[in-house]
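Your task
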Amino acid sequence: MTNTMTESVQDEQMSTTRTKPLILIVDDNVELLEELENLLKLGGYEVMAISDGTQVFETALKNKPDLILLDLKMSPKSGFQIADEARNSVLLKDIPLIAMTGFFTEKQHFLMMKLCGIKTSILKPFRPLNLITKIEFALGNRLEEYESDGT
């Protein structure tokens, strides 16, 4: 699965409109990627998962996700670098980012996120319900648009 999209997302790309929000998950931990992918699919989201931070910008431009769930501690490109690039991109700056980390303390975490334009985060390990709640809050009006289109 690493560095590839699931078949359902590939099929969805062929369509001009999506019926569910698309979440791009970026984490170099392949096991966590698979768990998050399954969780979010069960939660009613379309999901793309990549393990290489160097592919985020191109993938996001091509697929226009509604939200990016981003690990902060990756190499060769960190989540902070990715967030900073997205913040400075006219095409990506409005995509909500949720940072995931288990490495930084609250104070370090907050200051670095603020510098990169990340507005919300979740500390690892996290409970699935907490993650879904953060996603729903971050999607806000975007989520309502999908719900009204489906009725």
About this structure: The beta strands are 22-26, 46-50, 67-71, 97-101, 120-123.
